[in-house]
């Protein structure tokens, strides 16, 4: 039996991240770059040419034209967060499957509208959190789920920071209140909160408390912030995200019997190799001068980069719907929604003077 034909992608917008995902689509054996749309035809033409679109790819001078193309199976939406609701809903209503950049919306209320549109049209929805699709992630999850090596999860600490240059801090869409109003919290905090939820098997915390004195720009957009999360069973998590600190991408998850460390969880140090450290029943030597054993390093090699694996998994789900009349996979929207709920709670805590916020599903 021959494999299904590749899923035909349309890219809506020419953001920087679209370059990376366009490459991923071209490298995926299950997808093809079919079209790109921009508000400017010349910009779309330049983007297609510089990002290795096929010669016969469609180039549109508006998002609407791309979405009206009946041959587009799925769309990748890398637009500013403030535009996600409008264009994801339109895409879904036109029967296009939606691969949506993170954060998925400005709020869970907005995201719920996107979910309703996708479910009503029977289209797949997935967010663009690439590290979830790296094979390392499943190996790390095996360790966290091992009662003998890791035990019961007690705390999770995550960090995502990078030191943005002056031009970024002045002009990037991620510092503009009308484009990406969530700033560093939306751009970086999303990854930190996803990692926390992932480690906690997507059990939502009961309470979220933002750290005091976040740094905001003159327009009121978050440049640096953090928070603590609390569960009913005593688990606690913290995260820190910033546009003003050195590039760092850490997870530390501590269990009753073991500890997980990973230092490049969002973008691996190397494209086709990634590692993590696992420690079990750690202790000192007799004189307490050194550790009795060091954490073990686990190296996972992958033929395809994580963003290609993401595109391939999304394309597989789309193909199941298109060619086998399957139902959309609800796992991915559910994970996105939980991440957005916690992100909303952090923002609410900041806005309300660092009050604890109770999370309601």
TrEMBL record:
One of its GO terms (molecular function) is nucleotide binding. It comes from the Eukaryota. Signal peptide: none annotated. Transmembrane segments: none annotated. Coiled coil: none annotated. Residues 146-260 form the GFO/IDH/MocA-like oxidoreductase domain. Residues 7-126 form the Gfo/Idh/MocA-like oxidoreductase N-terminal domain. InterPro entries: Gfo/Idh/MocA-like_OxRdtase_N, GFO_IDH_MocA-like_dom, NAD(P)-bd_dom_sf. Pfam families: GFO_IDH_MocA, GFO_IDH_MocA_C3. Belongs to the Gfo/Idh/MocA family. PANTHER family: OS10G0403700 PROTEIN, PTHR46368. This is Uncharacterized protein.
